[in-house]
Amino acid sequence: MKRASTVLVPPEEMEKQRQFQELVYTKNIGFAAEQGRKPLAFVRTFGCQMNEHDSEKISGMLEKMGYGFCDSFEDADVIIMNTCCVRENAEEKVFGHIGSLKSLKRRKPWLVTAVCGCMTEQPHIVEEIRKKYKNVDLVFGTHNLHRLPELLFKVLDSGEHVYETSRTSGEVAEGVPVKRGGNIHAWVTVMYGCNNYCTYCIVPYVRGHERSRRPEDILEEVKKLCGIGYSEITLLGQNVNSYGKDLPEPVDFADLLRLICENTSIPRIRFMTSHPKDISDRLIAVMAEFPQICNQLHLPVQSGSTGLLKRMNRHYTREQYLETVKKVREQNPGIALTTDIIVGFPGETDEDFEDTLSLVEQVRFDQAYTFIYSRREGTPAAKYPDQVPQDVVKERFDRLLALQNRISKEINDGYLGEVVEVLCEGRSKTNLSRYTGRTGGNKIVNFRSPSDVTGKLVTVKIENVQTFFLEGTVLEVLS
Ligand code: SAH
Ligand code: SF4
Ligand code: F3S
Q1: Averaged pLDDT for residues 333-355
Q2: pLDDT band at residue 171, thresholds of 50, 70 and 90?
Q3: Each residue of 356-378: pLDDT tens digit?
């Protein structure tokens, strides 16, 4: 059965925001005349790729409003903190920063400080900011990001605090300007929100229900990116396998991938995240059919215990997960698999944890992102009685990490002496005499090259391997 169709932000509203962009721009001309310089913005991002991409939209709007950019709190005239709340430590970090900005605000009274993102979609956080952090001028959320020009104008014009989150149940705003962080790889959102309600997870509460972008809008964006020279895109969604369920036309994620592959010349396509419960045979087949879809899959398992998976509300068993992995590998030989695992979910017994270890041994993931369970207020698991003691969790976490690191290193050892294809992203940040890039399997490769091959697809001979990256020398420039 079809759900209610995705609602687009009406064109009049987008037009109104463009007008507010102009108004702030005019104010900034005044600022520049007075101070002899452009006002500068610092956008600080916490959290996942979704947030990184939202920050690119925030920066895109700020650019249109006449701001330049800096990368320190000290130099900024506008600070925007785009926050994450998936685990407690992410929130603590943000509050630490907000607190430390109090003195900066005293020295620079015109400074505008804004907090947005997932954290501010929780009413208790907005209350805490209202009460304890008067130095925060503007609070907005994830659903009303496109309204930044109007909200910022209000703050600049009235000098008063503005708090506005969740004005809608989640619409899709097309046409927000984007200032991308790089010119080789680009994020492309295909859907917003999540309907899965895993019992530990806060994301559905702060990101709203699932809303898919129209395939024609996505295709248009990818075509434009190709036109201006991008070589790689990552399609983003909390669960891309649900793509299209809310659209009037019968389209799913496999169709969308096919549409992009057949109608654009983008050399590399990645996507995340796939929920194991509904990865389809059609998706697995499309991945095998098109070489431009990278031979890589992020498939978060969370736990290797069927009992625990049930209490996490994941809707698959250990056996079903293993079956999916088998199918994926049969049709996509050599595919690099990565996963997410939570340690210390309430009620996790020694046996449950042993099941996770044995699944990790069995699957042999290229990499696993391991997290200590964090209690999130408002989620069902926060009320589960049998929270696991911290020392037990820590011990399990260390064991899992050691096991995965051993496996990652063993898999990487297999690359020694091999030749891999790498898309060069530029000079390595840690060693300026090397270049860095990724393989189709998403492995980081740092390599020597006699010439600057940034943006080019090259072959690299692997001469040394570490747990998290490979090292080598360029052989051939392919494009
Ligand atoms: N939508 C994606 C992941 C979103 S959050 C998916 O379903 O895979 C990224 C990861 O954070 C999750 O996969 C999970 O492993 C972890 N995570 C989410 N909530 C958490 C919590 N309360 N404590 C610890 N880790 C959590
Ligand atoms: Fe969170 Fe589960 Fe949705 Fe992923 S699928 S965002 S883990 S609720
Ligand atoms: Fe991402 Fe954190 Fe929000 S993981 S969706 S930024 S809560």
Answers
A1: 98
A2: confident
A3: 999 999 999 999 999 999 999 99
Kindly identify the ligand whose nearest atom is closest to the C-alpha of 87.
1
* 228 to 265, 293, 426: CA distances (angstroms): 12, 20, 18
pTM of the full predicted structure? 0.96
Q: For residue 395, which amino acid is it?
A: E
Question: Cα(6) to centroid of ligand 1, in Å?
Answer: 25
Q: How far is the CA of 374 from the centre of ligand 3 (A)?
A: 14
For residue 169, pLDDT over 80 is answered with: no
Question: Ligand 2 centre and the CA of 451: distance in Å?
Answer: 43
Kindly list the distances between the CA atom of residue 311 and the CA atoms of 232, 377, 381, 433, in Å, as whole numbers in the listed order. 37, 17, 8, 50
Q: Which ligand is nearest to the CA of 340?
A: 1
Token couple for 270:
């990645």
Average pLDDT rounded to a whole number, residues 295-304: 98
**Encoded amino acid at 396, one letter:** R
Give residue 2's pLDDT. Answer: 45
Residues 172, 6: contact at Cβ < 8 Å?
A: yes
Question: In this structure, are residues 303 and 343 in contact, taking their beta carbons and an 8 Å threshold?
Answer: no
The pLDDT of residue 4 is: 54
Structure tokens at 454: 């940034």
Ligand 1 centre to CA of 209 (Å) is 17
Q: Which atom of ligand 1 is nearest to the CA of 379?
A: 22
Pocket test for ligand 3, best of 45, 49, 50, 54 (most atoms within 8 A of CB): 50
Whether ligand 3 lies within 6 angstroms of the CB of 50 is answered as yes
- Domains located in the chain, CATH noted: 11-164 (3.40.50.280), 185-413 (3.80.30.20), 419-477 (2.40.50.140)
* Ligand 3 geometric centre to CA of 312 (Å): 18
